[in-house]
Structure formats: C-alpha cells, structure tokens
Amino acid sequence: MSQVTIDPEVTSDDKLWAALSYPIPFVGLIVLFMADKKARPFIKYHAVQGLAFNIVFWSIYLLLTLVTVGIAAICLPAAWLVTFWPAYKAYGGEYFELPVLSGFIKNQGWV
What we know:
- With 111 residues, the chain is mostly helical.
- The protein contains seven helices and two strands, in the order βααααααβα.
- The protein has one domain.
- It has helices at residues 12-20, 25-33, 35-38, 41-67, 76-81, 84-91, 101-107, and strands at residues 4-6, 94-96.
- The longest helix has 27 residues, at 41-67.
C-alpha cells in the first residue's frame, strides 16, 4: 500500500459503488457493464481492483480449503470480513494500491 490519494471530485455515490465492489464482487461486474458508472474513473478503478482482489483472495482461500481438507472452510465468515478493509478505504474516497495486484491491473491497462 504505497500511494494513497483522495480525489475531491468523488461523490458519495461513487464511494458507495466503489466500496460495494469489494465485499460483493458482482457489484464490480455490474459497474463494468453500466456505461455511466464505468466512465467515472474512481468507480472503475475500484470495480476492477475489487474483482481482481476477490478472484485472487477466493482462489487462495479455496486452495487452502482443499489443502487442509476443509478445515479452512470453517473460517468462511472470518475470511469474508477481510474484504471489508479495502471497502472501508474505498468508502473513504481513497485511491489505494494493493501490493502486486494494483501494479498488475495497471500494467494490463485495465485501469
């Protein structure tokens, strides 16, 4: 988490859509299909980052569940709570970077 910037032009609607993209991955997908929301840089940044975060996070969680023969599955609610940290940061109106992941999505040209 290196760069943290707050954009003064971000509306409360932008913050809400961005924040919901982390704990509810389908919101990020919906945002990318809505032309008016996708045109807003703050929302698009967090929608793409939220989708990438969820794909990586839940893939690792699934792998741990398979390796530990289901023991990690007991911690599902606690694992889901991990998604609230980036949602909180997004709702604060911040552009923040997740280690490795943010650099990857920027290099791919997704944001």
